[in-house]
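Continuing the batch. This is chain 6 of the set; chains 1 through 5 are on the previous pages. Same settings as before, nothing changed between runs. Recording input and output for traceability.
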Amino acid sequence: KGYLRFIANRRAQQIGLDPLFAQEENPFPWMSEMIDLKKERNFFETRVTEYQTGGALNWE
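Output for chain 6:
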């Protein structure tokens, strides 16, 4: 419930509206890093959330 209110306030502010709910803190700060639509970040200040998968290893 708190996270949904946090997101609603954030989206409202992004389109220039006042927050809809009283001061809501993000209860899941790690979730914003993974879901955030803006992928442009400083490489050295973020956690790695995407790894290469599906590669084939050939030992011969």
